[in-house]
Sequence to fold (175 residues):
Amino acid sequence: MSFKVFVSYSSKDEKSINPFLETLKSISGLEHYFFKETKKIAQDTRDDILANIRDSNAFLVFHSANSSRSSYVQNEIGAAMGLDKQVILCGLDKTELEGMLKGVNYLNFYNPDVCRIELNKLVGWIQEKIALQQTRASLKTASTNEKSFDWINFLLLVGIIAGSLYLISRLMKAR
Fold:
């Protein structure tokens, strides 16, 4: 099981976000949906995007003047928020947040003095979520195994008790 992040961006910002995407790709246990890399020939783009937003654990949007003007990015943000996804904003420039994003905290990727720190925060957050997801999966597996083990022992105990009662009743009748 992997942690899935949907990446929303304006195609006009592609060169700016490539270094960040390369960092994300290096995170073990992270699966990302990045339209340019995951689109398929003759695929219904709208359905594919909605399905991937729905299946994601988090929604990462690279915010800029370009993404603010992109109807695709704005529709993706609306879908993510409508599906109650964890929205992570990465600011590529000083464009003011508007609409549903107004007032949301963001990672500052446009200031070179703090960009590396902000990227490390993002990577750390994702790694924490992956570790939590793996721990939950391990606990669920252990819990399932314990329940099966307990159920089998219970049935064995019932069989032993039933057999013992049968033997005792036979011995009582023989006297």
